[in-house]
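Whether sequence alone determines local backbone shape is best considered at the level of individual chains. When preparing material for the folding task, we compiled for one chain both its residues and its backbone structure tokens. The sequence in question and its structure tokens are set out directly beneath this paragraph.
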Amino acid sequence: MNNNEREVLKRIQENPFISQQELALSIGLSRPAVANIISGLIRKEYVLGKAYVLNEDYPIVCIGAANLDRKFYVHTELQLETSNPVTSTRSIGGVARNIAENLGRMGETVAFLSTSGNDSEWDMIHKLSSPFMNLDHVQQVENANTGSYTALIDNEGNMTYGLADMEVYDYITPEFLIKRTHLLIKAKCIIVDLNLSKNAIDFLCAYSEKHNIKLVIIPVSSPKMKNMPDSLHAIDWLIINRDETENYLKMKINNTNDLKTAAKRWNDSGVSNVIVTNGVNELIYRNSNQEIIKPIMPSDKVLDVTGAGDSFSSAVVFSWLNDLDIDSILAAGMINARKTIETNYTVRQNLDKKQLFRDLEEYKNGKIH
């Protein structure tokens, strides 16, 4: 597409019922010129006609952060209040974006919805993400910075500090989402991270429940639990860790019985399916009919734990949408997380649908413990 086609398509995505005259005024072209552009977009099958129906499959819509990740690796024991020798890397991340890439690599049609700066950081994210997801619905905000996340990794591969610049996601408001309901209404599943405001999350819950759209919520950190919605009844899946659960439920989880109590409280609050992870120990899955405790698959080849939770969540959602049984769903999540932390990448580079199913088969045959 040329620049004019991109501008017209962008405005059609924002408002599928916009008139040709409104389009002409908004981008500074004549109405006949806009008509010719629309005809070209129809020939190229970007749109299907009035009201400009976008030619997209029913996608998984991921909503949330797309960040530039900076990682600093400390090779000796970290010394406070002095200079520490490190090596550093830059990569792309963000919870919703990472999940979108995992799902795209596994062959799902994924649309990513977010906000970004108009800067070189977004250019990098766009270039590396676009093979795996549709980024046409990301709005660039002038005078805002693309989200960034800086992690300090100790000599054992664990994150010591994480620093987040996420103010750009404040622009994802209910009004922002209302303008994009033509995309949301077609979603076979909406996955949202808690970088969005509480008002935006509340809107997505109400919209999903009204239109019977599957909804998955992925928390980001304990402080972000303040963005959990007022009502949890629209949530099909909540994948959450112990610290986030303790923060929200105002309880301490010291043992397996506490973990069971916490999972039941999530279900009693309205969540259909919940997974609560407990670090390198066990996890619990629970719904109204079933409770499963699983030990975490250990690894002695850990290189970088960044992205482990996102790879777990994406494999769980993928397996659920593909109608796998619950044991396979949990195994897929743990396998994908384990395979990811054994690489230096936030999303493992050899991931595809066949690879995940091969990994699952090896697990069932006892080759992965």
Remarks:
- The chain has a mean pLDDT of 92.
- The two ends are 49 Å apart (CA to CA).
